[in-house]
Design goal:
- The structure holds two protein chains of two kinds.
- Chain A is α+β, with helices and mostly antiparallel strands.
- In chain A, 31% of the residues lie in helices and 17% in strands.
- Chain A has two domains: 43 residues, no CATH class; 126 residues, Alpha-Beta Plaits (2-Layer Sandwich).
- In chain A, a hairpin with a 3-residue loop joins strand 4 and strand 5.
- The model of chain A has no long low-confidence stretch (mean pLDDT 77).
- Chain B is α+β, with helices and mostly antiparallel strands.
- A three-stranded antiparallel sheet of chain B has the order 1-2-3. Chain B has a three-stranded antiparallel sheet with strand order 6-7-8.
- In chain B, helix 4 packs antiparallel against helix 5 and helix 5 runs antiparallel to helix 6.
- Classes of the chains: A alpha+beta, B alpha+beta.
- At the A-B interface, helix 1, helix 6 and helix 9 of A face helix 5, helix 6 and helix 7 of B.
- The complex binds iron/sulfur cluster (2 copies).
- The site of one iron/sulfur cluster has 13 residues of chain A, from helix 5.
- One iron/sulfur cluster binds next to helix 5 of chain A.
Chain lengths: 221, 370
């Protein structure tokens, strides 16, 4: 009805004015005395007595606590996780990358009578500055050696430093994302809390039978 | 006594906050009246169609994300349908259901963005846009659960999708759909009856249906003029023939009608997703690699597949010479074709309506320039 539209609109804006904000705070958020005490693991009175300086800061609104990023387990868009022991230098990932930014150099290693010829990986560079995090390399890796990772604080001043070498990949904390790796989802692995130390744990398990899969699908819906 | 004025030419854009990207208009004004408009585009041209000629069929999915970047899933779907037609791939049922859910969610997100920015162009700085973006954020969170990315999804693969939805997706989707309905209700409460919106959008930039059909404009713009043309109903792709939904039509064909049609379509999309959730069946989400290998070599030939995108008919035309990459790819970009009537919409109008009309086309420069 003409004439009522504007007031009705203002009721909506008023409702939104008092609803809790959806803004995500990162990397830390401001807390009051209660929050600071909770962070320190004490009750507020203990906190006041034991840490007067910190409590004053908290009361003045200057205390901050770090906030974990909210990301789903499948998030892609962060650094890679790489298990060198699983990699056979097959270069499927390099071939499958739409941008061709993975460089692999391998040399024939020792000849093993039982396992056939094994290749030694000399260079494994990912130019992460040009990567668009499409995940096709992870999808292509047949041995689950390369995963999307969840470490992301990697700002650099020079572009060249954005090329991740084999050593860097090897040293990075092993927090693989569940992108294209259903085995992590099945084990309820949380990349934001745990790491994978043993490279055996990163592999795929036996394929589920159709009945098991069907049960899972029916349960989930 | 009429004041004598002299026509003035003004350059709007390419770096203008209201041009929805890098778009330039050379506008000639006579006082407040628009006498001539000349659109200039190509600032965002990245040559996606050419780049596609040296990528394999799966790798091109990542290029299609970046065409219309507010409706990546729909672009993925149109491209994958063309590949499936070209290579004769039989998709897995569960994959098809999942991609229908994903693309309908994307349609809601795209319409929300269109509405938010239309109101922004009207001068409602912030509020409606923030409300719309807040809701879109929930949809992007759902996408993150589904495929790990929020905007450049690359979720679809020839024959289905790359991964099944995780267990926490289904309850989150149910909650999300309720939220979306609430937000649309809210949006309609404060906009659909708002007198300012009425006075600014009703009766401006009216386009007769014949003109729209002659210019092959599709999508909400066409439906706002009362032409019942929706590819989901006229030429059902995927499983849209198993879904029943209403086609919302408006006959006024002005800026308000275009806004109204988008909001109602978002409502219908929620209903479509609910039906998809009911009908989705267990199974693999993509055919095995024995049937559809990673490196597809379609037989020589060509194929065109079109879907009802968020902005109109979105089609991909692929020519194969039997190799691993297409010989030629062409995109029927609905944004570009909807833009062809810009002169008819603007000339004779007022300066104040320029950006409102422009926003009501809901164009995306990433798709116009590709
Ligand atoms: S995520 Fe995509 S762009 Fe990045 S290295 Fe892997 S395949 Fe290449
Ligand atoms: S990371 Fe995977 S795909 Fe890449 S070379 Fe190693 S085993 Fe092959």
């Amino acid at each position: 009805m003409i004439g009522l539209g504007l007031p009705r609109g203002f009721v909506v804006t008023l409702k939104n004015f008092i609803r809790p904000p959806v803004t995500e705070q990162y990397p830390d958020r401001h807390v009051g005395l209660l929050g600071a005490a909770k962070e320190a693991g004490m009750n507020p009175f203990q906190f006041l007595v034991k840490k007067p300086a910190d409590s004053l800061k908290a009361i003045a609104g200057l205390a901050t606590v770090p906030v974990a990023v909210k990301q789903s387990a499948r998030f892609r868009g962060n650094e890679f996780t790489y298990f060198e022991d699983r990699c056979t230098a097959c270069a499927s990932c390099a071939k499958y990358c739409p941008l061709g930014i993975i460089e692999i150099v391998s040399v024939p290693g020792k000849i093993d009578a039982q396992e056939g010829e094994s290749y030694k990986l000399e260079v494994f560079d990912i130019d992460i500055g040009r990567c668009m995090f499409c995940g096709l390399c992870v999808e292509a890796c047949p041995y689950d050696a390369l995963h999307m990772g969840t470490n992301f604080e990697r700002s650099k001043y020079v572009r060249d430093e954005l090329v991740i070498s084999k050593e860097e990949l090897f040293d990075a904390p092993k927090r693989p994302s569940a992108f294209y790796r259903p085995q992590f989802e099945e084990n309820n692995f949380d990349p934001f809390k745990e790491t994978i130390e043993d490279f055996h744990d990163a592999g795929r398990h036996e394929k589920k039978t159709y009945d098991e899969l069907k049960k899972k699908w029916v349960d989930e819906r | 006594m009429a004041i004598k004025t002299q026509p003035v030419t003004v350059n709007l854009g390419p770096q203008h906050p209201s041009t929805h990207g890098v778009f330039r208009m050379r506008v000639m004004f006579d006082g407040e009246e628009i006498v001539d408009v000349e659109p200039v585009f190509g600032y965002l041209h990245r040559g996606s169609e050419k780049l596609a000629e040296e990528r394999t069929y799966t790798q091109i999915v990542t290029l299609t994300d970046r065409m219309d970047y507010v409706s990546s899933m729909l672009n993925n779907q149109a491209y994958i349908l063309a590949v499936e037609k070209l290579a004769g791939i039989e998709p897995s049922p569960r994959g098809v259901w999942l991609r229908m859910i994903a693309s309908e969610l994307q349609r809601i997100a795209s319409h929300l963005v269109a509405t938010g920015f239309l109101l922004q162009d009207l001068g409602a700085l912030g509020t409606p846009l923030i409300y719309a973006m807040r809701e879109r954020e929930n949809i992007l969170d759902l996408f993150e659960m589904l495929c790990g990315a929020r905007i450049t999804n690359s979720y679809l693969r020839p024959g289905g999708v790359f991964m099944d939805a995780p267990a926490e997706f289904w309850p989150a989707l149910d909650r999300g759909l309720d939220d979306i309905v609430n937000t649309i209700d809210e949006l309609e409460t404060y906009l659909s009856g708002n007198e300012i919106v009425f006075s600014r959008t009703k009766g401006t930039a009216v386009l007769p249906p014949e003109l729209l059909i002659n210019a092959s404009v599709t999508g909400p713009m066409l439906r706002a003029s009362g032409v019942d043309w929706d590819l989901r109903h006229r030429a059902p792709y995927d499983y849209y023939d198993k879904i029943s939904f209403e086609r919302k039509l408006h006959t006024a064909s002005d800026n308000y009608a275009r806004y109204w049609v988008r909001v109602q379509e978002a409502r219908e999309s929620v209903k479509i997703i609910r039906q998809c959730i009911e009908q989705i069946e267990p199974g693999e989400v993509r055919p095995s690699f024995d049937d559809v290998p990673r490196l597809i070599r379609p037989p020589a030939g060509d194929a065109y597949a079109a879907i009802e995108g968020s902005k109109g008919e979105l089609g991909f035309y692929l020519v194969s010479d039997g190799g691993i990459a297409p010989y030629r790819m062409h995109v029927r970009a609905s944004s570009l074709i909807n833009l062809t009537l810009l002169r008819d919409m603007l000339i004779g109008g007022q300066f104040g309506d320029l950006f409102v009309t422009f926003g009501s086309v809901d164009l995306n420069m990433g798709e116009v320039d590709r």
